[in-house]
């Protein structure tokens, strides 16, 4: 593109007309339920009974919408917007309606007076639409209700989208959050050769709900130093005179685009240059700009009082009603819309066509772009299992081979990435480095390994940033996997909730096309964090996820390596769900060959006949159930002890991979019917359930099942320390000896005739405590244990 040229007077009038129309539509949504074009005097019955909304941020967002339209129309720049300020919905709804996309997707809200009336009436109204840029809003893939994630989402959308510009409006209140502060560093990972660009627009309107914002009160030189220190070249647009602000904003946008294109051209033509210092815009305009100057003698525009509803008493206070009417008429709606309520040509002069419109961009409706991954067959990576429980592998290390080959298969299409907080190798996934590097644009040293400008492994020690990148990447039409230590997935619990809510809401919107599943691999888990200790031991992310919409969440606990391969193959094919996979990285026993693993994972829960002692056609006297790799090992070890000490006891072993199978089918689409459930866990048989996480989750999932009174769950009891692996399970009463004691305590008649066996189990536990304190290792019979049966 050529150097920026000043706006002509006609350009200025066109832009101002579009901006005024947006301001009118935004204010109308907050206040009006009738008389949308002010064709008659405003009366109380035209006002909504409950005034909800946030006016203060709207004029700035509207200005950005107008000027991004100009950039698209003038320069042909493919663009999508992320609207960070909370409750900015009126502006984005207004922009989508004005450009026509909203009416195309919702024909009853067309671009005429009747459609405008419905646009106004539905906003923050029962049965209507929310006040955020929610899935209802065309062109949005970021809701903006919970603050802090806009810039991370923007960079996620830009990754592997070389022709895309992502404009990201950051509210100055949002800029105070920790996730946003970390997101400034995302520019060190953006590859100008293969990625698109992000244009941050820091909107300093000065106030939050009731307080000034930190960045708005910094001296200019301090703010400039901060932003330059983050690696940006800031461009400043400041003022309250609309004409001058329009000229300055147009110049800033053109200059930013020129600098972006030059950085991309140099990288794509192979020029050796230092990391780009990407442009950004600092937009400083009054809060509630063009709204009431003051209300009841108190200043409003440019203060915190403009944050929500500047005039709150318009139904009851005639002065407020007249002031509102004057405010709305100041935009001259009669000049902006014709007699039928349609926007006049001048208002639409800057609006692009077709899918170039912000509300119609396929990058904001990523299901339109998503392609099926070319997944390799898990059988290629399967470990041989001649007999269960005799050999060990590191499940995530084996999975790393599959992910490496997936990286190779997507090298040209670049639509799969691996995200994680500095733990890819720690989590045994380092084989991916044979196919791609870690993304890195900053300086490198000779001792660095696997850093590259074009890498597709994203590592940064901010779980918020990893999560935000992945969300933006998936929502704009690509695939990814987030690998994390299990305990620290909690850091992004709130972000995960917001993503689930987005998917849940989007499912009910017919024009939203399903996107790829968002996948977590939680490893370095609670039972093998014995070296790091109590601070690293927390399996509760699963509990958090399973509180969410059952149509959107899935949790898998594969018991061994081949099961993990099958689960990974499944989750990487899913759409519109959040998948949590919990699997260890330490050596664990191989129980199932690949075909058995496929069948078992497809069932989600099943009986391992080879591990139990029940005879065909008979009922078990006790069921040993398990979920998770370490609980499975302890359950199998307990079953082996029962074979030795109580060979006449009929024992069934059940393993659960998909935790949602425990729920009734009426509560979760993966849930078992009561008949299916009782075929695994009969109602009148004691069930000892060894579970990976907090025991009460299993109780919650099964509380309606007939077997629940006979269900006893062992799991993590928030007892941890730096200790031996087996001592972790002993400390939490999940060990094999405790499970045998539980069987004796709960099977009718065993408490009397198996007293000696119970005492022997208790004695081993005591011997264990003494042994580890003397030797620092686990008991030899534990360390050297393997499955003794024939396995079939």
TrEMBL record:
Residues 7-368 form the Xylulose 5-phosphate/Fructose 6-phosphate phosphoketolase N-terminal domain. The keyword Transport does not apply. Its cofactor is thiamine diphosphate. Residues 585-787 form the Xylulose 5-phosphate/Fructose 6-phosphate phosphoketolase C-terminal domain. InterPro entries: Phosphoketolase, THDP-binding, Transketo_C/PFOR_II, Xul5P/Fru6P_PKetolase, Xul5P/Fru6P_PKetolase_C, Xul5P/Fru6P_PKetolase_CS, Xul5P/Fru6P_PKetolase_N, Xul5P/Fru6P_PKetolase_ThDP_BS. It comes from the Bacteria. Keywords: Lyase, Thiamine pyrophosphate. It is an enzyme of class 4 (lyase). NCBIfam families: PRK05261.1-1, PRK05261.1-2, PRK05261.1-4. This is Probable phosphoketolase. It comes from Streptomyces chrestomyceticus. The lineage of its organism: Bacteria, Bacillati, Actinomycetota, Actinomycetes, Kitasatosporales.
